[in-house]
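Per reviewer request, we include the raw input and output of the structure prediction for the construct analysed in the revised manuscript.
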Amino acid sequence: MNALRRCLRSIAGVCRTTVARSAVPTLSLAEFSTLQSDLLYAFDTPATSYNTAIQLAVLQLMAKYHVEEGIDRTAWYVTNMKSHASEKRVPQVLKILLEYGAHAKRVVPKLEEAAQYFQTRENAVTGFPKVLSLGKAKAVRETVARLKTMDDKDKDKIKLISIAKDKE
């Protein structure tokens, strides 16, 4: 665990990417709980190179264990990821969000804002290619449509856990 912690806390993106691709997908819920602060640090703290592998791995792990806080973190990441190659990552992140089922309906307003941003402002703000922004907007709107059709009764099928409550 100490070696994983050191890699997750390293500023070197290559360390985090290695951990993201090899160790993170294999973590049990107990191991996730033990490494939670280190994983979230790696997610939130910029690295010397791309941090996207660890960010995606953390979101996937949170969805795998139905961590309640992962819903908001995933929705946040849709518009706050690095723009380089985000046209490929946005659909991946939306797929992760759908793993929460009807529980993810609560972030529909955030997703609708994201779609609007991609369609109308991203190009002007960041210079991201308009055609790619429109593709992201479309993917977000398709996910919103899927979420809106989900029955709230289906929330019983997925039991969420809270990592915030575990740390109190």
